[in-house]
Write the C-alpha coordinates for this entry.
Amino acid sequence: MFGDSGAAIGYGGSARLRPLEVLPWVLAAVVFFFAPNYLPLGAYILIMILFALSLELILGYGGIVTLGHAAYFGFGAYVAGILAVRVSGDPLLGLAAAALAAGLLGLATGAVILRTHALALLMLTLAITSIVFEIASQWTSVTGGSDGMHSVPILPILGSFKFDMFGKTAYLYCLLVLFLCWWLVRTIVHSPFGMALAGTRENDVRMHAIGAPVYRRQLIAYTISAALAGVAGALLTHTTQFVGLSVLTFELSGEVLVMLVLGGIRRIYGAFVGPVVFLVARDYLAKQSPEYWTLGIGLLLIFIVMFARGGILGLMDSLRRRLVRKVS
Amino acid sequence: MEAFFSSLVSILFHGLAFGAILYVISVGLSVTMGLMGFVNLAHGVFAMAGGYLMISAMQKLGLAWLPALLLACAAVALASMLLERLLYARLYGAGELEQVLFTIGLIFVAVALARLAYGTGPQSAPLPDYMKGQTELFGRTFPSYRVVVIASSAVLIAVLWIGLERTRWGAMVRAAVDNRAMAQSIGIDTGRLFTYTFALGSGLAALGGALGADLLAMTPTYPFEHLVYFLIVVAIGGLGTLRGPFVGALLIGIGDTACKYWMPQFGAFFVYAATMALLLWRPQGLLGRAH
Protein backbone atom coordinates (compact mmCIF):
# COMPACT_ATOMS: atom_id res chain seq x y z
CA MET A 1 0.00 0.00 0.00
CA PHE A 2 0.86 3.68 -0.07
CA GLY A 3 3.23 5.65 2.12
CA ASP A 4 6.00 3.88 3.93
CA SER A 5 7.26 6.98 5.69
CA GLY A 6 6.29 6.65 9.32
CA ALA A 7 6.01 10.36 9.99
CA ALA A 8 3.32 10.81 7.37
CA ILE A 9 0.98 8.07 8.49
CA GLY A 10 -0.79 10.25 11.00
CA TYR A 11 -0.93 8.14 14.07
CA GLY A 12 1.64 8.63 16.72
CA GLY A 13 2.18 12.17 15.51
CA SER A 14 1.93 14.94 18.02
CA ALA A 15 -1.39 16.73 18.13
CA ARG A 16 0.29 20.04 18.87
CA LEU A 17 0.10 22.62 16.15
CA ARG A 18 3.37 22.85 14.24
CA PRO A 19 4.48 26.25 12.92
CA LEU A 20 4.27 25.03 9.31
CA GLU A 21 0.56 24.32 9.74
CA VAL A 22 -0.13 28.05 9.80
CA LEU A 23 1.27 28.39 6.28
CA PRO A 24 -1.91 27.48 4.31
CA TRP A 25 -3.92 30.11 6.13
CA VAL A 26 -1.24 32.77 5.68
CA LEU A 27 -1.13 31.97 1.96
CA ALA A 28 -4.91 32.17 1.78
CA ALA A 29 -4.78 35.63 3.38
CA VAL A 30 -2.03 36.73 0.98
CA VAL A 31 -4.18 35.67 -1.98
CA PHE A 32 -7.12 37.61 -0.57
CA PHE A 33 -5.19 40.86 -0.20
CA PHE A 34 -2.78 40.70 -3.14
CA ALA A 35 -4.51 38.72 -5.87
CA PRO A 36 -8.12 39.91 -5.94
CA ASN A 37 -8.55 38.71 -9.53
CA TYR A 38 -8.08 35.13 -8.45
CA LEU A 39 -10.75 35.10 -5.73
CA PRO A 40 -13.38 33.14 -7.70
CA LEU A 41 -10.79 30.49 -8.58
CA GLY A 42 -9.55 30.67 -5.00
CA ALA A 43 -13.01 30.01 -3.61
CA TYR A 44 -13.37 27.00 -5.91
CA ILE A 45 -9.98 25.70 -4.77
CA LEU A 46 -11.02 26.09 -1.12
CA ILE A 47 -14.17 24.10 -1.82
CA MET A 48 -12.23 21.31 -3.52
CA ILE A 49 -9.76 21.27 -0.62
CA LEU A 50 -12.66 20.63 1.73
CA PHE A 51 -13.98 17.93 -0.59
CA ALA A 52 -10.53 16.31 -0.79
CA LEU A 53 -10.19 16.56 2.97
CA SER A 54 -13.46 14.70 3.43
CA LEU A 55 -12.21 11.98 1.09
CA GLU A 56 -8.89 11.82 2.92
CA LEU A 57 -10.71 10.93 6.12
CA ILE A 58 -12.19 7.72 4.70
CA LEU A 59 -9.66 6.88 1.98
CA GLY A 60 -6.40 7.96 3.58
CA TYR A 61 -7.20 7.19 7.19
CA GLY A 62 -10.02 4.69 6.86
CA GLY A 63 -8.55 2.86 3.87
CA ILE A 64 -11.95 2.66 2.15
CA VAL A 65 -11.41 2.88 -1.61
CA THR A 66 -14.44 4.66 -3.05
CA LEU A 67 -15.26 5.84 -6.54
CA GLY A 68 -18.48 7.52 -5.53
CA HIS A 69 -17.68 10.34 -3.16
CA ALA A 70 -19.28 12.82 -5.56
CA ALA A 71 -22.65 11.39 -4.47
CA TYR A 72 -22.42 13.23 -1.13
CA PHE A 73 -20.85 16.37 -2.59
CA GLY A 74 -23.56 16.56 -5.24
CA PHE A 75 -26.32 15.68 -2.79
CA GLY A 76 -25.23 18.54 -0.53
CA ALA A 77 -25.09 20.89 -3.51
CA TYR A 78 -28.61 19.94 -4.62
CA VAL A 79 -30.03 20.11 -1.10
CA ALA A 80 -28.61 23.62 -0.70
CA GLY A 81 -29.98 24.64 -4.10
CA ILE A 82 -33.46 23.19 -3.60
CA LEU A 83 -33.68 24.65 -0.11
CA ALA A 84 -32.72 28.10 -1.40
CA VAL A 85 -35.28 27.98 -4.20
CA ARG A 86 -38.18 26.52 -2.21
CA VAL A 87 -37.71 27.55 1.42
CA SER A 88 -35.02 30.05 2.26
CA GLY A 89 -31.76 31.22 0.74
CA ASP A 90 -30.04 31.64 4.07
CA PRO A 91 -26.52 30.22 3.54
CA LEU A 92 -25.92 28.99 7.08
CA LEU A 93 -29.25 27.19 7.07
CA GLY A 94 -28.23 25.72 3.71
CA LEU A 95 -24.91 24.53 5.09
CA ALA A 96 -26.58 22.89 8.08
CA ALA A 97 -29.21 21.23 5.91
CA ALA A 98 -26.63 19.99 3.40
CA ALA A 99 -24.40 18.60 6.15
CA LEU A 100 -27.34 16.86 7.78
CA ALA A 101 -28.76 15.49 4.54
CA ALA A 102 -25.41 14.30 3.16
CA GLY A 103 -24.51 12.86 6.56
CA LEU A 104 -27.76 10.90 6.69
CA LEU A 105 -27.20 9.66 3.15
CA GLY A 106 -23.68 8.69 4.17
CA LEU A 107 -24.98 6.85 7.22
CA ALA A 108 -27.64 4.98 5.25
CA THR A 109 -25.42 4.06 2.31
CA GLY A 110 -22.34 3.50 4.45
CA ALA A 111 -24.25 1.02 6.60
CA VAL A 112 -24.80 -0.94 3.43
CA ILE A 113 -21.54 -0.66 1.53
CA LEU A 114 -19.19 -1.11 4.49
CA ARG A 115 -20.48 -4.64 4.89
CA THR A 116 -18.77 -5.55 1.63
CA HIS A 117 -15.17 -5.52 0.40
CA ALA A 118 -13.06 -5.04 -2.71
CA LEU A 119 -14.97 -5.12 -5.99
CA ALA A 120 -18.43 -5.27 -4.44
CA LEU A 121 -17.66 -2.19 -2.33
CA LEU A 122 -16.28 -0.32 -5.33
CA MET A 123 -19.34 -1.27 -7.38
CA LEU A 124 -21.74 -0.18 -4.65
CA THR A 125 -20.13 3.25 -4.37
CA LEU A 126 -20.46 3.60 -8.15
CA ALA A 127 -24.06 2.38 -8.10
CA ILE A 128 -25.04 4.82 -5.35
CA THR A 129 -23.59 7.77 -7.26
CA SER A 130 -25.36 6.58 -10.39
CA ILE A 131 -28.68 6.33 -8.55
CA VAL A 132 -28.39 9.85 -7.11
CA PHE A 133 -27.35 11.07 -10.57
CA GLU A 134 -30.36 9.40 -12.22
CA ILE A 135 -32.74 10.95 -9.68
CA ALA A 136 -31.23 14.40 -10.20
CA SER A 137 -31.35 14.07 -13.96
CA GLN A 138 -34.88 12.65 -14.21
CA TRP A 139 -36.74 14.59 -11.48
CA THR A 140 -36.74 17.73 -13.61
CA SER A 141 -39.52 19.57 -11.78
CA VAL A 142 -37.35 19.85 -8.69
CA THR A 143 -33.77 19.62 -9.89
CA GLY A 144 -34.01 21.19 -13.34
CA GLY A 145 -32.76 17.96 -14.94
CA SER A 146 -29.86 18.36 -17.33
CA ASP A 147 -30.23 22.17 -17.34
CA GLY A 148 -29.54 22.33 -13.64
CA MET A 149 -30.70 25.18 -11.39
CA HIS A 150 -29.65 28.66 -12.44
CA SER A 151 -29.53 31.88 -10.40
CA VAL A 152 -30.29 30.16 -7.13
CA PRO A 153 -31.32 32.99 -4.75
CA ILE A 154 -28.80 33.19 -1.90
CA LEU A 155 -29.38 35.67 0.94
CA PRO A 156 -26.56 37.59 2.67
CA ILE A 157 -24.71 35.64 5.36
CA LEU A 158 -26.23 36.38 8.80
CA GLY A 159 -28.37 38.92 7.01
CA SER A 160 -25.48 41.37 6.58
CA PHE A 161 -22.66 40.01 4.38
CA LYS A 162 -23.86 40.09 0.81
CA PHE A 163 -22.17 37.94 -1.86
CA ASP A 164 -20.42 40.55 -4.03
CA MET A 165 -19.54 40.29 -7.69
CA PHE A 166 -15.79 40.23 -6.99
CA GLY A 167 -16.16 37.10 -4.92
CA LYS A 168 -14.68 38.60 -1.74
CA THR A 169 -17.47 37.44 0.56
CA ALA A 170 -17.58 34.06 -1.15
CA TYR A 171 -13.83 33.57 -0.67
CA LEU A 172 -13.86 34.47 3.02
CA TYR A 173 -17.00 32.41 3.57
CA CYS A 174 -15.35 29.32 2.02
CA LEU A 175 -12.13 30.00 3.92
CA LEU A 176 -13.91 30.20 7.25
CA VAL A 177 -15.92 27.03 6.67
CA LEU A 178 -12.81 25.21 5.49
CA PHE A 179 -10.95 26.36 8.58
CA LEU A 180 -13.64 24.98 10.89
CA CYS A 181 -13.84 21.68 9.01
CA TRP A 182 -10.03 21.38 8.93
CA TRP A 183 -9.98 21.83 12.68
CA LEU A 184 -12.60 19.11 13.06
CA VAL A 185 -10.75 16.66 10.80
CA ARG A 186 -7.44 17.43 12.50
CA THR A 187 -8.96 16.77 15.90
CA ILE A 188 -10.48 13.50 14.71
CA VAL A 189 -7.26 12.32 13.10
CA HIS A 190 -5.23 12.91 16.25
CA SER A 191 -7.85 11.43 18.56
CA PRO A 192 -7.84 7.79 19.69
CA PHE A 193 -10.72 7.31 17.26
CA GLY A 194 -8.53 8.48 14.37
CA MET A 195 -5.71 6.16 15.41
CA ALA A 196 -8.11 3.23 15.60
CA LEU A 197 -9.33 4.12 12.12
CA ALA A 198 -5.79 4.09 10.76
CA GLY A 199 -5.24 0.81 12.58
CA THR A 200 -8.18 -0.69 10.71
CA ARG A 201 -6.66 0.46 7.44
CA GLU A 202 -3.33 -1.13 8.27
CA ASN A 203 -4.66 -4.45 9.49
CA ASP A 204 -8.36 -4.94 10.05
CA VAL A 205 -7.99 -8.57 11.05
CA ARG A 206 -5.81 -7.57 13.97
CA MET A 207 -8.21 -4.77 14.93
CA HIS A 208 -11.02 -7.31 15.01
CA ALA A 209 -8.82 -9.59 17.07
CA ILE A 210 -8.26 -7.00 19.78
CA GLY A 211 -11.98 -6.45 19.95
CA ALA A 212 -12.22 -3.09 18.23
CA PRO A 213 -15.62 -2.21 16.75
CA VAL A 214 -14.25 -1.91 13.22
CA TYR A 215 -17.52 -1.63 11.35
CA ARG A 216 -18.95 1.00 13.70
CA ARG A 217 -15.80 3.13 13.52
CA GLN A 218 -15.69 2.99 9.76
CA LEU A 219 -19.37 3.89 9.59
CA ILE A 220 -18.89 6.91 11.86
CA ALA A 221 -15.95 8.08 9.77
CA TYR A 222 -17.92 7.52 6.58
CA THR A 223 -20.86 9.55 7.90
CA ILE A 224 -18.66 12.46 8.98
CA SER A 225 -16.86 12.37 5.65
CA ALA A 226 -20.15 12.41 3.74
CA ALA A 227 -21.39 15.36 5.81
CA LEU A 228 -18.19 17.31 5.09
CA ALA A 229 -18.49 16.53 1.38
CA GLY A 230 -22.08 17.77 1.55
CA VAL A 231 -20.90 21.03 3.13
CA ALA A 232 -18.38 21.43 0.29
CA GLY A 233 -21.19 20.87 -2.23
CA ALA A 234 -23.38 23.46 -0.51
CA LEU A 235 -20.50 25.96 -0.61
CA LEU A 236 -20.30 25.47 -4.36
CA THR A 237 -24.02 26.16 -4.73
CA HIS A 238 -23.81 29.24 -2.52
CA THR A 239 -20.78 30.76 -4.24
CA THR A 240 -21.79 30.04 -7.85
CA GLN A 241 -25.59 30.20 -7.42
CA PHE A 242 -25.75 27.24 -9.77
CA VAL A 243 -26.18 23.49 -9.42
CA GLY A 244 -25.72 21.15 -12.37
CA LEU A 245 -25.42 17.42 -12.95
CA SER A 246 -21.63 17.64 -13.15
CA VAL A 247 -21.47 17.64 -9.32
CA LEU A 248 -22.70 14.05 -9.33
CA THR A 249 -20.49 12.50 -11.97
CA PHE A 250 -17.94 9.74 -11.82
CA GLU A 251 -15.49 12.21 -13.36
CA LEU A 252 -15.74 14.43 -10.29
CA SER A 253 -15.19 11.48 -7.95
CA GLY A 254 -12.16 10.59 -10.03
CA GLU A 255 -10.88 14.15 -10.14
CA VAL A 256 -10.97 14.65 -6.39
CA LEU A 257 -9.20 11.32 -5.99
CA VAL A 258 -6.50 12.52 -8.38
CA MET A 259 -6.11 15.79 -6.48
CA LEU A 260 -5.76 13.98 -3.18
CA VAL A 261 -3.22 11.51 -4.48
CA LEU A 262 -1.31 14.25 -6.25
CA GLY A 263 -0.90 16.13 -2.97
CA GLY A 264 -0.09 13.04 -0.97
CA ILE A 265 -2.41 10.59 0.68
CA ARG A 266 -2.51 9.66 4.40
CA ARG A 267 -1.69 13.13 5.59
CA ILE A 268 -4.06 16.03 6.06
CA TYR A 269 -2.08 18.51 4.00
CA GLY A 270 -2.05 16.39 0.88
CA ALA A 271 -5.67 17.49 0.56
CA PHE A 272 -4.44 21.11 0.61
CA VAL A 273 -1.52 20.84 -1.80
CA GLY A 274 -3.20 18.62 -4.39
CA PRO A 275 -6.23 20.78 -5.28
CA VAL A 276 -4.10 23.96 -5.38
CA VAL A 277 -1.57 22.49 -7.80
CA PHE A 278 -4.17 20.65 -9.86
CA LEU A 279 -6.65 23.51 -10.22
CA VAL A 280 -4.10 26.28 -10.78
CA ALA A 281 -2.40 24.14 -13.43
CA ARG A 282 -5.76 23.38 -15.01
CA ASP A 283 -6.65 27.06 -15.05
CA TYR A 284 -3.55 27.74 -17.14
CA LEU A 285 -3.29 24.63 -19.27
CA ALA A 286 -6.79 23.34 -19.83
CA LYS A 287 -7.95 26.48 -21.61
CA GLN A 288 -5.22 26.21 -24.18
CA SER A 289 -5.52 22.51 -24.94
CA PRO A 290 -7.95 20.37 -22.99
CA GLU A 291 -6.74 17.22 -24.77
CA TYR A 292 -3.16 17.61 -23.66
CA TRP A 293 -4.34 18.48 -20.16
CA THR A 294 -6.25 15.20 -19.91
CA LEU A 295 -3.28 13.35 -21.37
CA GLY A 296 -0.95 14.98 -18.86
CA ILE A 297 -3.19 14.10 -15.91
CA GLY A 298 -3.37 10.50 -17.02
CA LEU A 299 0.40 10.22 -17.44
CA LEU A 300 0.90 11.97 -14.11
CA LEU A 301 -1.36 9.48 -12.34
CA ILE A 302 0.52 6.55 -13.84
CA PHE A 303 3.79 8.18 -12.85
CA ILE A 304 2.62 8.72 -9.26
CA VAL A 305 1.48 5.12 -8.90
CA MET A 306 4.69 3.75 -10.38
CA PHE A 307 7.29 6.04 -8.84
CA ALA A 308 5.95 8.57 -6.32
CA ARG A 309 3.22 7.05 -4.22
CA GLY A 310 3.47 9.73 -1.56
CA GLY A 311 2.50 12.48 -4.00
CA ILE A 312 4.08 15.93 -3.88
CA LEU A 313 4.40 15.98 -0.09
CA GLY A 314 5.90 12.50 -0.16
CA LEU A 315 8.51 13.67 -2.68
CA MET A 316 9.30 16.67 -0.51
CA ASP A 317 9.67 14.40 2.50
CA SER A 318 12.17 12.13 0.81
CA LEU A 319 14.03 15.16 -0.56
CA ARG A 320 14.28 16.58 2.95
CA ARG A 321 15.44 13.29 4.36
CA ARG A 322 18.16 13.11 1.72
CA LEU A 323 19.30 16.64 2.51
CA VAL A 324 19.38 15.95 6.25
CA ARG A 325 21.41 12.82 5.65
CA LYS A 326 23.93 14.78 3.59
CA VAL A 327 24.31 17.46 6.22
CA SER A 328 24.78 15.11 9.14
CA MET B 1 -52.38 -8.63 -25.69
CA GLU B 2 -50.78 -8.98 -29.10
CA ALA B 3 -49.30 -5.48 -28.71
CA PHE B 4 -47.84 -6.44 -25.35
CA PHE B 5 -46.47 -9.67 -26.71
CA SER B 6 -44.84 -7.94 -29.63
CA SER B 7 -43.23 -5.32 -27.38
CA LEU B 8 -42.03 -8.13 -25.14
CA VAL B 9 -40.41 -9.91 -28.10
CA SER B 10 -38.85 -6.65 -29.20
CA ILE B 11 -37.44 -5.97 -25.71
CA LEU B 12 -36.08 -9.49 -25.41
CA PHE B 13 -34.48 -9.23 -28.83
CA HIS B 14 -32.87 -5.83 -28.30
CA GLY B 15 -31.92 -6.76 -24.75
CA LEU B 16 -30.30 -9.93 -26.04
CA ALA B 17 -28.25 -7.96 -28.60
CA PHE B 18 -27.16 -5.45 -25.94
CA GLY B 19 -26.42 -8.24 -23.47
CA ALA B 20 -24.37 -10.13 -26.06
CA ILE B 21 -22.16 -7.09 -26.66
CA LEU B 22 -21.84 -6.48 -22.92
CA TYR B 23 -20.80 -10.08 -22.45
CA VAL B 24 -18.18 -10.13 -25.19
CA ILE B 25 -16.67 -6.93 -23.81
CA SER B 26 -16.85 -7.83 -20.13
CA VAL B 27 -15.91 -11.50 -20.10
CA GLY B 28 -12.22 -10.65 -20.34
CA LEU B 29 -12.61 -8.35 -17.37
CA SER B 30 -14.11 -11.16 -15.32
CA VAL B 31 -11.30 -13.53 -16.17
CA THR B 32 -8.49 -11.04 -15.55
CA MET B 33 -10.05 -9.88 -12.28
CA GLY B 34 -10.62 -13.43 -11.14
CA LEU B 35 -7.20 -14.64 -12.29
CA MET B 36 -5.04 -11.77 -11.16
CA GLY B 37 -7.23 -10.02 -8.63
CA PHE B 38 -6.58 -6.87 -10.58
CA VAL B 39 -9.17 -4.08 -10.49
CA ASN B 40 -8.95 -3.03 -14.11
CA LEU B 41 -11.18 -0.01 -14.58
CA ALA B 42 -9.53 0.64 -17.95
CA HIS B 43 -11.05 -2.41 -19.62
CA GLY B 44 -13.39 -0.20 -21.65
CA VAL B 45 -10.33 1.40 -23.21
CA PHE B 46 -9.69 -1.80 -25.15
CA ALA B 47 -13.28 -1.88 -26.37
CA MET B 48 -13.00 1.73 -27.50
CA ALA B 49 -9.66 1.07 -29.19
CA GLY B 50 -11.25 -1.84 -31.07
CA GLY B 51 -14.08 0.33 -32.34
CA TYR B 52 -11.89 3.25 -33.39
CA LEU B 53 -9.27 1.06 -35.04
CA MET B 54 -11.95 -0.69 -37.06
CA ILE B 55 -13.29 2.66 -38.25
CA SER B 56 -9.76 3.73 -39.21
CA ALA B 57 -9.05 0.46 -40.98
CA MET B 58 -12.20 0.88 -43.05
CA GLN B 59 -11.66 4.53 -43.87
CA LYS B 60 -7.87 4.75 -44.25
CA LEU B 61 -7.00 1.25 -45.46
CA GLY B 62 -10.23 0.72 -47.35
CA LEU B 63 -10.81 -2.67 -45.75
CA ALA B 64 -14.21 -4.32 -45.68
CA TRP B 65 -16.13 -4.59 -42.41
CA LEU B 66 -15.06 -8.07 -41.34
CA PRO B 67 -11.31 -7.85 -42.08
CA ALA B 68 -11.24 -4.43 -40.40
CA LEU B 69 -12.91 -5.93 -37.34
CA LEU B 70 -10.41 -8.77 -37.11
CA LEU B 71 -7.44 -6.52 -37.71
CA ALA B 72 -8.56 -4.13 -34.95
CA CYS B 73 -9.06 -7.03 -32.59
CA ALA B 74 -5.60 -8.46 -33.26
CA ALA B 75 -3.92 -5.06 -32.96
CA VAL B 76 -5.54 -4.37 -29.59
CA ALA B 77 -4.65 -7.83 -28.29
CA LEU B 78 -1.00 -7.27 -29.22
CA ALA B 79 -0.89 -3.77 -27.77
CA SER B 80 -2.49 -4.95 -24.54
CA MET B 81 0.16 -7.66 -24.20
CA LEU B 82 2.81 -4.99 -24.27
CA LEU B 83 0.89 -2.89 -21.76
CA GLU B 84 0.49 -5.87 -19.46
CA ARG B 85 4.21 -6.69 -19.50
CA LEU B 86 5.34 -3.09 -19.09
CA LEU B 87 2.84 -1.68 -16.62
CA TYR B 88 0.07 -3.94 -15.32
CA ALA B 89 2.46 -6.69 -14.23
CA ARG B 90 4.23 -4.31 -11.85
CA LEU B 91 1.02 -3.78 -9.89
CA TYR B 92 -0.24 -7.34 -9.40
CA GLY B 93 0.91 -7.37 -5.82
CA ALA B 94 -0.06 -3.76 -5.14
CA GLY B 95 -3.12 -2.58 -3.26
CA GLU B 96 -6.54 -1.88 -4.65
CA LEU B 97 -5.99 1.87 -4.53
CA GLU B 98 -2.89 1.76 -6.73
CA GLN B 99 -4.68 -0.40 -9.27
CA VAL B 100 -7.68 1.91 -9.31
CA LEU B 101 -5.50 5.00 -9.72
CA PHE B 102 -3.32 3.45 -12.40
CA THR B 103 -6.26 2.32 -14.48
CA ILE B 104 -8.02 5.69 -14.10
CA GLY B 105 -4.77 7.22 -15.37
CA LEU B 106 -4.89 4.88 -18.36
CA ILE B 107 -8.46 5.93 -19.07
CA PHE B 108 -7.47 9.60 -19.02
CA VAL B 109 -4.63 8.92 -21.46
CA ALA B 110 -6.90 6.93 -23.76
CA VAL B 111 -9.65 9.57 -23.68
CA ALA B 112 -7.13 12.28 -24.57
CA LEU B 113 -5.57 10.26 -27.40
CA ALA B 114 -9.00 9.39 -28.81
CA ARG B 115 -10.00 13.05 -28.74
CA LEU B 116 -6.79 14.07 -30.48
CA ALA B 117 -7.12 11.42 -33.15
CA TYR B 118 -10.87 11.32 -33.78
CA GLY B 119 -12.38 14.52 -32.40
CA THR B 120 -15.11 14.76 -29.79
CA GLY B 121 -18.13 13.76 -31.85
CA PRO B 122 -19.55 10.24 -31.95
CA GLN B 123 -18.41 8.02 -34.82
CA SER B 124 -19.73 4.76 -36.12
CA ALA B 125 -18.47 2.28 -38.66
CA PRO B 126 -20.41 2.09 -41.92
CA LEU B 127 -22.17 -1.27 -41.96
CA PRO B 128 -21.97 -3.59 -44.96
CA ASP B 129 -25.17 -3.89 -47.01
CA TYR B 130 -26.15 -7.31 -45.73
CA MET B 131 -26.43 -5.88 -42.23
CA LYS B 132 -28.59 -2.90 -43.11
CA GLY B 133 -32.22 -3.86 -43.63
CA GLN B 134 -34.41 -6.34 -41.82
CA THR B 135 -34.35 -10.08 -41.43
CA GLU B 136 -37.44 -12.22 -41.21
CA LEU B 137 -37.44 -14.83 -38.46
CA PHE B 138 -40.39 -16.82 -37.07
CA GLY B 139 -42.87 -14.60 -38.90
CA ARG B 140 -41.47 -11.38 -37.43
CA THR B 141 -38.92 -8.93 -38.79
CA PHE B 142 -35.79 -8.01 -36.90
CA PRO B 143 -33.00 -5.55 -37.73
CA SER B 144 -30.28 -7.57 -39.46
CA TYR B 145 -27.38 -5.89 -37.67
CA ARG B 146 -28.61 -7.05 -34.30
CA VAL B 147 -29.27 -10.54 -35.60
CA VAL B 148 -25.63 -10.66 -36.74
CA VAL B 149 -24.49 -9.36 -33.34
CA ILE B 150 -26.43 -12.05 -31.49
CA ALA B 151 -25.42 -14.86 -33.84
CA SER B 152 -21.73 -14.03 -33.90
CA SER B 153 -21.66 -13.54 -30.13
CA ALA B 154 -23.27 -16.93 -29.70
CA VAL B 155 -20.59 -18.56 -31.84
CA LEU B 156 -17.88 -16.70 -29.96
CA ILE B 157 -19.29 -17.74 -26.59
CA ALA B 158 -19.45 -21.37 -27.67
CA VAL B 159 -15.82 -21.31 -28.85
CA LEU B 160 -14.72 -19.62 -25.66
CA TRP B 161 -16.51 -22.06 -23.39
CA ILE B 162 -15.26 -25.09 -25.23
CA GLY B 163 -11.76 -23.59 -25.21
CA LEU B 164 -11.79 -23.10 -21.47
CA GLU B 165 -13.37 -26.45 -20.66
CA ARG B 166 -11.58 -28.67 -23.15
CA THR B 167 -8.11 -27.34 -23.86
CA ARG B 168 -4.91 -27.56 -21.89
CA TRP B 169 -4.69 -23.78 -21.72
CA GLY B 170 -8.23 -23.64 -20.31
CA ALA B 171 -7.38 -26.13 -17.64
CA MET B 172 -4.33 -24.09 -16.68
CA VAL B 173 -6.39 -20.92 -16.41
CA ARG B 174 -8.98 -22.65 -14.25
CA ALA B 175 -6.26 -24.06 -12.04
CA ALA B 176 -4.69 -20.63 -11.59
CA VAL B 177 -8.04 -19.05 -10.73
CA ASP B 178 -8.72 -21.73 -8.14
CA ASN B 179 -5.34 -21.63 -6.46
CA ARG B 180 -2.55 -19.58 -7.91
CA ALA B 181 0.19 -20.73 -5.54
CA MET B 182 -0.62 -24.37 -6.17
CA ALA B 183 -0.74 -23.85 -9.92
CA GLN B 184 2.69 -22.24 -9.77
CA SER B 185 4.13 -25.00 -7.66
CA ILE B 186 3.11 -27.71 -10.12
CA GLY B 187 5.02 -25.84 -12.80
CA ILE B 188 2.47 -23.63 -14.53
CA ASP B 189 4.13 -20.43 -15.70
CA THR B 190 1.44 -18.12 -14.31
CA GLY B 191 3.19 -14.97 -15.50
CA ARG B 192 2.96 -16.06 -19.11
CA LEU B 193 -0.53 -17.41 -18.55
CA PHE B 194 -1.57 -13.99 -17.25
CA THR B 195 -0.11 -12.21 -20.26
CA TYR B 196 -1.86 -14.43 -22.80
CA THR B 197 -5.13 -14.42 -20.90
CA PHE B 198 -4.97 -10.66 -20.56
CA ALA B 199 -4.35 -10.32 -24.29
CA LEU B 200 -7.28 -12.62 -25.03
CA GLY B 201 -9.57 -10.65 -22.73
CA SER B 202 -8.53 -7.34 -24.27
CA GLY B 203 -8.87 -8.76 -27.77
CA LEU B 204 -12.39 -9.90 -26.96
CA ALA B 205 -13.19 -6.45 -25.54
CA ALA B 206 -11.92 -4.92 -28.79
CA LEU B 207 -14.05 -7.35 -30.76
CA GLY B 208 -17.08 -6.44 -28.67
CA GLY B 209 -16.39 -2.75 -29.02
CA ALA B 210 -15.99 -3.01 -32.80
CA LEU B 211 -18.92 -5.39 -33.27
CA GLY B 212 -21.13 -3.18 -31.11
CA ALA B 213 -19.97 0.14 -32.56
CA ASP B 214 -23.47 0.70 -33.92
CA LEU B 215 -25.08 -0.02 -30.54
CA LEU B 216 -22.63 1.81 -28.27
CA ALA B 217 -21.34 4.64 -30.45
CA MET B 218 -17.64 5.47 -30.35
CA THR B 219 -16.97 8.66 -28.43
CA PRO B 220 -13.74 9.62 -26.66
CA THR B 221 -15.45 9.27 -23.28
CA TYR B 222 -16.59 5.69 -24.06
CA PRO B 223 -14.43 4.07 -21.33
CA PHE B 224 -15.94 6.38 -18.70
CA GLU B 225 -19.52 6.23 -19.93
CA HIS B 226 -19.86 2.48 -20.07
CA LEU B 227 -17.49 1.58 -17.26
CA VAL B 228 -20.29 1.17 -14.74
CA TYR B 229 -22.13 -1.32 -16.94
CA PHE B 230 -19.03 -3.40 -17.66
CA LEU B 231 -18.28 -3.54 -13.95
CA ILE B 232 -21.87 -4.31 -13.00
CA VAL B 233 -21.94 -7.26 -15.39
CA VAL B 234 -18.82 -8.70 -13.79
CA ALA B 235 -19.77 -7.87 -10.22
CA ILE B 236 -23.26 -9.34 -10.28
CA GLY B 237 -22.17 -12.36 -12.32
CA GLY B 238 -19.18 -13.30 -10.22
CA LEU B 239 -15.46 -13.08 -10.79
CA GLY B 240 -13.26 -15.58 -12.53
CA THR B 241 -15.99 -17.48 -14.37
CA LEU B 242 -17.35 -17.48 -17.90
CA ARG B 243 -20.94 -18.22 -16.94
CA GLY B 244 -21.21 -15.52 -14.27
CA PRO B 245 -20.81 -12.51 -16.53
CA PHE B 246 -23.02 -14.28 -19.10
CA VAL B 247 -25.91 -14.29 -16.65
CA GLY B 248 -25.00 -10.75 -15.57
CA ALA B 249 -24.87 -9.47 -19.15
CA LEU B 250 -28.23 -11.00 -20.06
CA LEU B 251 -29.87 -9.60 -16.91
CA ILE B 252 -28.45 -6.14 -17.48
CA GLY B 253 -29.03 -6.15 -21.24
CA ILE B 254 -32.66 -7.19 -21.02
CA GLY B 255 -33.37 -5.33 -17.77
CA ASP B 256 -31.92 -2.08 -19.06
CA THR B 257 -33.80 -2.34 -22.37
CA ALA B 258 -37.07 -3.12 -20.57
CA CYS B 259 -36.65 -0.21 -18.13
CA LYS B 260 -35.89 2.25 -20.90
CA TYR B 261 -38.83 0.98 -22.97
CA TRP B 262 -41.51 0.78 -20.31
CA MET B 263 -40.35 3.43 -17.82
CA PRO B 264 -38.18 5.92 -19.67
CA GLN B 265 -38.91 8.55 -17.01
CA PHE B 266 -36.83 6.59 -14.51
CA GLY B 267 -33.79 6.17 -16.77
CA ALA B 268 -31.41 3.52 -15.51
CA PHE B 269 -32.54 3.94 -11.90
CA PHE B 270 -33.89 0.41 -11.50
CA VAL B 271 -30.82 -1.20 -13.02
CA TYR B 272 -28.63 0.42 -10.38
CA ALA B 273 -31.13 -0.26 -7.58
CA ALA B 274 -31.37 -3.93 -8.59
CA THR B 275 -27.57 -4.14 -8.76
CA MET B 276 -27.32 -2.78 -5.23
CA ALA B 277 -29.92 -5.20 -3.89
CA LEU B 278 -28.22 -8.10 -5.62
CA LEU B 279 -24.76 -7.23 -4.34
CA LEU B 280 -26.07 -6.92 -0.80
CA TRP B 281 -27.68 -10.30 -1.08
CA ARG B 282 -24.65 -11.93 -2.71
CA PRO B 283 -21.52 -9.73 -2.51
CA GLN B 284 -19.54 -12.33 -4.47
CA GLY B 285 -22.01 -12.22 -7.37
CA LEU B 286 -24.61 -14.71 -8.54
CA LEU B 287 -22.25 -17.45 -9.62
CA GLY B 288 -19.14 -16.36 -7.73
CA ARG B 289 -17.76 -18.37 -4.89
CA ALA B 290 -17.64 -16.91 -1.40
CA HIS B 291 -14.14 -16.36 -0.12
